[in-house]
Amino acid sequence: MSTRAPVGDGSTPQIVEEHRDDDFATQVVPAEARLSRGKVHMASWAMLVGMIYLFQGALAATLAGTKQAIIGLLVSAALMALFNMPMVRLGISTGKGSSLASEQVFGKLGRFLIILLLAIATIYFTVFEGSVIAVSFQHYVGGDLRIWYVVAVVGMLPLMMGAVLTWLDKINAVLLPLYVAGVLAAVVLAAMNGNPTGWLEYPGVVPAAAQVIPGWVTTVVIYLGVWLIIPVSNDFSRFGRNEDARYHRWVTFGPVFTTITLVVNGIIGMFVVQSVLPRSEAASEVGVAIALVQLMGVVGLVFIVVTQMRIQTLNFYLSSLNIQRLIQEATGRRVRRKLLVAVVAVVAVVLMLTDVFSYLLQTLQWFGIFFVGWGGIMATCVAFGGMRTNFAPATETTKPRLLTPATAVWLFSAAVGIALLQSAEALPLLAQLAPIISLGIAVVGYLLVVLAQRFTDRAEPGSNGVAVISRGSS
Fold first, then answer.
1. What is this structure's pTM?
2. Cα(81)–Cα(88) distance, rounded to whole angstroms?
3. Are 229 and 80 in contact (CB under 8 A)?
4. What are phi and psi of 269, to 5 degrees?
5. Which terminal residue of the chain, N or C, has fewer Cβ atoms less than 10 Å from its own Cβ?
6. Residues 2-22 pLDDT 10s
7. 375 in helix, strand or coil?
8. What is the C-alpha to C-alpha distance for residues 270 and 200, in angstroms, rounded to an integer?
């Protein structure tokens, strides 16, 4: 396994070039490989254009009512930004992405687990977004959906080979104006040709008497399913320069980003879908894609393709990156990421045949349970534990541990959340609040670990609640 090169250690040009093409998948990003503010911004903002955010907005409004859903969107954006900003600070300050940082907090087991979760989750989103393209083509052109699955993946494969350091910022800079123009056109056409009357007053399909929790809380729970954004933001922010840290915390990955990604996209999804489709179909799995094609015709189809090109560059990049990390963890061998892009394409086509839309919401809930626990603990560690102590480079005498107390807290919070999700009939209130309960357990549990270690290990250097963490390798 190749040696990890810490930031600012005088890494040789040979070490830097060896890992540049693979975006330092298993390495600390050295100072000489950091990118300009604009490059990091453009590469990472591919995250904000997925159809998943439009769909979630339409789904939330249909279930909770439009006004309640908008309140929930605002709360979700603020909550995500609150936990995302410490992770951006971590990435820029140390050059460490989600896997290396996880090893220091959760040990070897936690490092492997977050890589595995990211690999599975990003492959799933690759399948979902590719399926949106296929369904859109079938709705407009007709034909066998299975053929369109293949076209949706293979047709875009050449664009998916790029990396943050060489391609993602360029393609996203070109496609972003097209996305903005398409969204604006969809809104205008929905207002002119659809039936937008009363969309803001829509109460939702669930009667107030039957709601177990307020509609805005339902919306927050739905959006906790995309907290995958937090480790992904950490992985992108490690390419940022220290002088751009404030900008990236507040704009690239912070409140500006979460507001556009969740709130703006969500409201657009609500408005367009409810204006074009009957209320009963507004929350259908492919409602957004069908509404756009019905509303805009071939222009809508082109818009969907352009949008998905942006998000799929990110999905393929992250999927291949984390599979690359998994292989290196298991075998100690580096496999070129571009080869793994082709592997992801094959897996995506196979999984598309499983009807990904049928288990969308449940899958998001499961991902949300794991990622809110990880994000809660990591952000708390950065905010309260101290950057230098918790994420300092390892020395020759330090060895990564298999697990830490933080690992137990994370796995316990996830186990409780999943158990509650599976107990919907017996515990309907707790089941609907499962991701929020998992987040609370993770944050409070980790803080208790911090306090316990401070009391029991005062004499040990760095015993600030993450004493075992500071022994992890970097």
1. 0.84
2. 10
3. yes
4. -60, -45
5. N
6. 334 444 444 445 555 555 555
7. helix
8. 9
